[in-house]
Structure formats: C-alpha cells, structure tokens
Write a structure and sequence with these properties.
The structure is a homodimer of 170-residue chains.
Chain A lengths: L16 H20 L6 H12 L5 H8 L3 H13 L3 E5 L7 E5 L1 H21 L5 H18 L22
Antiparallel strand pairs in A: 1-2
Chain A binds a DNA duplex (30 and 30 nucleotides) through helix 4.
Chain lengths: 170, 170
DNA sequence: CTGTTATTGTCCGGTACGGTGACAGTTACT
DNA sequence: AGTAACTGTCACCGTACCGGACAATAACAG
C-alpha cells in the first residue's frame, strides 16, 4: 500500500493536502451515500431535506438559488423526493405558476434518522481523532471553505449523480 | 415521539467535518483540474505520470493495479497520454503480449511544470493557514486517510470524470 | 383593458461517459 | 502439441448531463 513512499525528491501525492482533501472528500461522499442508501435517499436529497426544514413553502426557484444549483436539477431532485413521498408540491398561495414545496410527515420522521446516520458517519470518519482534534479540524476546514468562496453549506458537486446505486459492496 | 430535534438549530451542514471534507475535496478537484487544463492534462493524468516516473517499463496491468483501477480505464488513460505524446507503448522485453509503458521526453519536461502547478494550487487552497497549521492539517488528514483503508496516494475517484475543464466562472 | 415581456416549471434531444461482455494475440503449463 | 490463463482492445448499452424550446402565469406599459 505504501509503495510510493519515496522520501526526498518530490513530495508524494499522499503528502499534499490538496490530494488528501480530494481523496478524503471523495471517500466521505461515497461512504455517506452508502450509509444513506438504506433510507432510500442520496446525500443531495439529505441536504435538500435539511434545507427544506427551514424554508417551508419556498418555490423551486428559491430552493435552487439557495443550494446553488439550476432549476432543472431541482426539478429532478424534487421529482425523486416526491416519488418517495417526502415532499409535496402544493399550490403557491400568491403565485399560481410556482409550487410551494413542503415536507411530508414521512420526511419529518425520516430526517432525524438521516441525521443520526450522518452523525454515525462523521464519528466513523473521525475515529482517529479525539474531541479536541475534531473541533480544531472543523475550524480549520471552515476557514479553508470560507476562503474558497463557496457559500457555506452549499456543495459544489450537488449537480453530480450523487453517487447513487453504489451499494456498500466494497 | 422523541422531539429531540430542535427545528432550525441543528448542526448545519457547514459544521460537519464530513460535509466540509466533501465540499472542499470537490472544490479542490475542480480547481486543480482547471489549473492543470492549460497543460493539456487532467488530474488523473498527472497522478499516472507521477507514478510512471518511478515505474518505467511497467505493464498496463501493473499500472492499473498500482493505481487501484481497472485495466480498461488504464487503456483510456494511456490512450489520451499517448495521443499527447507523453507516454510510449513499447514492446515489453520479456512478454510480447504486454506493453512496456515509458515516459517521453515531453513528459519529463511537462512534469516539473505540472508539479509547480500543483504546488501553487496547494498554496492557494491553504492560504488561510500558516506553515504550522498546514503541517498539522496534512498530518491529521493522513491519519484520517489511513483509517479509511484507501491505499496511500490512490484516489478512489480516479474513474470519475474529474477531468472536465470546469470553468471557475461560477 | 390590452398587449408585451419576464418568470416558473417542465419536457425533449443530442452528447458524452462509465460499466459489461466478448475477442485476438501471447504465454505458461501438462 | 494442446489447453488454460493472461494482456490489451474493441463494440455495445444504459445512464446522466447540457442545451434549447415550450405552456402557463405573472408583472408591467400604454
């Protein structure tokens, strides 16, 4: 595994923070998707549901803006969530061309479980670190994330297929 | 039943290390691909070229094993690199059915530039951190990466697009 | 009030990519 | 020799992304 540990000449990939971030980020996304799969949702669904919790009745356009994605992607996302009966497209009270998106009761039951999954996942990923190190890591990552210019809580890869159908076979 | 979820005040996504890792990892991959694009190669090409530097004359199968990908992916990767005249498929001295992969002179000229791009990229990403914090971050990330079980230096998303030149316009 | 323009949400088609199965050439084993 | 195993390649297929176009509705000018 640690074959290419050539010290000296050029820094190996595993010594670059950028590579580690990309590698870990990918792994985290993969495993989180696998953990979430039994609940019938993908990570992007989870993010959307969490956002919906605080923005009941918003239009699809508002949601798309908030998550930094295109309206078309929101259509697909909501289609999937609606099919799982986690959201409802109701009539918007003041704008009849828009939909007011609401969480269903099922979603309110699902969300705590999903959050628990996320907590377990986080705990597993951070196993090697103690509490202090975890807090410090989060603080550092937040500083880095802030510097990137990405809005807080907005995942730039939300348009991606969200790593679906990757059964926890590995 | 268990109303343990305080509505609206749960830990936001931006407070989870897993989300930050995924978000940052994606952003890093994106921007690195953009930075590497002018050189005519993608991040996975870069990783392969770096590996080839130390394993001249290996077969495609050996390379695929080392990078943790399938032989078929290696075919495509080498096709692209060969088209850019960065690698050569020579006759394997002892096994006539296999190819011996070698870097070209152009690749030896390109690699230092690519490494420089990677250094600049790393420096930009880590701008908010001082030298001590950077070293500590790398150390922590290495511990986490080791715990995931992924081989060091092997990017689990090597099969993914990761290659597309996403304009940093957004 | 009427007509024009902008917005919302949806659908459709082209395009590219990842993943799978089969295939020729070569080697290794009996 | 003859057969099994391996390497590298190709062709196929299902799927996801991206663009434009569209109906319905709203907002606004005159």
């Amino acid at each position: 595994m640690f074959d290419d540990s050539a010290p000296g000449t050029d820094r190996p990939l595993a010594g670059r923070a950028t590579f580690l971030l990309s590698q870990l980020g990918f792994h985290v996304a993969q495993t989180f998707a696998a953990r979430l799969a039994p609940l019938g949702i993908a990570p992007n669904h989870f993010g959307l549901l969490m956002h919906l919790e605080r923005s009941e009745g918003n239009t699809q356009q508002q949601l798309a803006d908030a998550l930094g994605i295109h309206r078309k992607v929101m259509v697909g996302l909501l289609d999937e969530l609606e099919q799982r009966e986690l959201v409802e497209r109701r009539r918007h009270p003041s704008d009849r061309r828009a939909h007011a998106i609401h969480l269903t009761e099922a979603a309110r039951h699902l969300l705590p479980r999903a959050r628990q999954v996320a907590d377990q996942h986080e705990d597993e990923i951070l196993t090697p670190l103690d509490a202090g190190e975890r807090a410090e890591l989060v603080a550092v990552l937040q500083r880095l994330a802030e510097h990137t210019g990405n809005a807080a809580g907005v995942h730039p890869g939300l348009h991606q297929p969200a790593t679906r159908s990757r059964q926890p076979a590995d």
